[in-house]
């Protein structure tokens, strides 16, 4: 992640930045604009597969890639935001409002090689503190998934241990299955 100069910004000023929606995403944390690293191939494969798997195993939730979530003085862009359909605000035409101003129900981050784990954990903990019910941090180099949930100790999942998912997501998945998606058969 690249941090901006030490000038303190307000969240209102940050949200007016002309390059805010550029890629890679910018986040607002503790008065600073921080740019996430550009996703690489393993990150993108895991993100795509998780989006597909979670979406296909729940009618109550939708999975959204790189959705800006601005709440409680922070603006974060999880790699995947899982949100209950009934929490999405709609306008008079029945279409979703563009700005999501709450914590997602489930925030998923995929650690990139040049990303700082503590920054990612800090964002996940912020989400949990402000209403998120589940957080995942996937570490493709360690083949592990670190999970966070309110009033629970963080847990590290490896191998064939069943991963924690939200109630209403009917998905049985292990860390081993997730990271097996990175094996490419080139027959």
Automatic annotation (TrEMBL):
Assigned keywords, A-Z: Endonuclease, Hydrolase, Nuclease
Highest taxon above the source species: Bacteria
Annotated SUPFAM superfamilies: Restriction endonuclease-like (SSF52980)
Pfam families named among the record's database cross-references: Uma2 (PF05685)
Single GO MF annotation: endonuclease activity
InterPro entries documented for this protein: Nuclease_put_TT1808, Restrct_endonuc-II-like, Uma2
Naturally occurring in which organism (per UniProt): Candidatus Synechococcus calcipolaris G9
UniProt entry tagged with the keyword Oxidoreductase: no
Protein name per UniProt: Uma2 family endonuclease
Domain Putative restriction endonuclease: 12-169
């Amino acid at each position: 992640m690249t941090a901006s100069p030490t000038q303190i910004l307000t969240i209102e000023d940050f949200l007016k930045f002309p390059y805010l929606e550029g890629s890679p995403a910018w986040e607002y944390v503790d008065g600073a604009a921080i740019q996430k690293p550009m996703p690489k191939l393993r990150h993108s494969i895991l993100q795509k597969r998780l989006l597909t798997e979670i979406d296909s195993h729940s009618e109550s939730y939708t999975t959204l890639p790189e959705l800006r979530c601005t709440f409680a003085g922070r603006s974060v862009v999880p790699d995947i935001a899982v949100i209950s359909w009934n929490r999405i605000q709609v306008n008079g035409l029945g279409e979703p409002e563009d700005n999501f101003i709450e914590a997602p129900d489930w925030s998923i981050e995929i650690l990139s090689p040049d990303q700082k784990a503590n920054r990612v954990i800090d964002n996940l903990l912020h989400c949990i503190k402000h209403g998120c019910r589940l957080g995942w941090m996937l570490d493709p180099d360690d083949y592990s998934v670190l999970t966070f949930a309110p009033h629970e100790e963080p847990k590290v999942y490896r191998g064939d241990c069943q991963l924690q998912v939200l109630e209403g997501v009917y998905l049985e998945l292990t860390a081993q299955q997730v990271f097996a998606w990175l094996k490419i058969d080139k027959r």
